[in-house]
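Continuing the batch. This is chain 6 of the set; chains 1 through 5 are on the previous pages. Same settings as before, nothing changed between runs. Recording input and output for traceability.
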Amino acid sequence: MLRLRKWAAAAGIGAAAVLVLFGTSPVRGQEKKWVMIKGQVVWKGDPPGKKKPDVKTDKEHCLSKGELYYEDVIISPKSKGVKNVWVYLKPATGNNFAPADIKPELAKPKPAAHVVDQPCCQFVPRILAVRDGDTVTFKNSAPVPHNVNYNADNEAFNVTVPSGGTHMPKMPFAAQNSPVLFKCDIHPWMSGRIMVFDHPYFAVTDDDGKFEIKDAPAGKFRVFYRHENGYHKGREGAKGFPIEIKDEKAGAMELKPLELELPKPTN
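Output for chain 6:
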């Protein structure tokens, strides 16, 4: 081994490269396991009743497809799955992933272009999870004007979007700790939120409360369950919950369904 090191030094080759050449050690990160995390968020107890907004502006259009309801809590009547919960990972300590814990092809992906529409007095979609560098376009396919009041850390605006019009923030998304709020001041029940991440390990639950986080690094991390009305278990959940990611079966790990416990309203 000593002779190998001397030969490497003379040849200008790093010791790690020598080990790889002679088959005594893998490339750093070669044995890293990348795991798909699957899970579901369900409502604990009886689902709350639906609440209707007081529709006064553009009532004929807004109610043309039926009654409107506040969409901050959406629960599947069959599975009790909770829609629109952000589920994401962080390191066991600190907030920033080490480069070795991000799959190389996910480190610097091509920015994604997201679209939020306002077809019938609701934002669609109204909850998003994006990466820094992504963009969003607010679209209005309704026959009435809408408003977008947008408040990100790196840009804020309040504009009217006419029927058939669009508006795009000047700046791409930049990672921030709190969700980006957007709302319509013309129709005050309309609002949405966007979480912006500086890593790829996040998801939003679907209609049945299910989610998938692809290519997560094996090891010890923290998992967060965050709803627009608060973290699961409030302050405790704001710190995240310990999780050991393992390749349990064919590169996947199935979590037990999580019963969501939101903090009680302060008012």
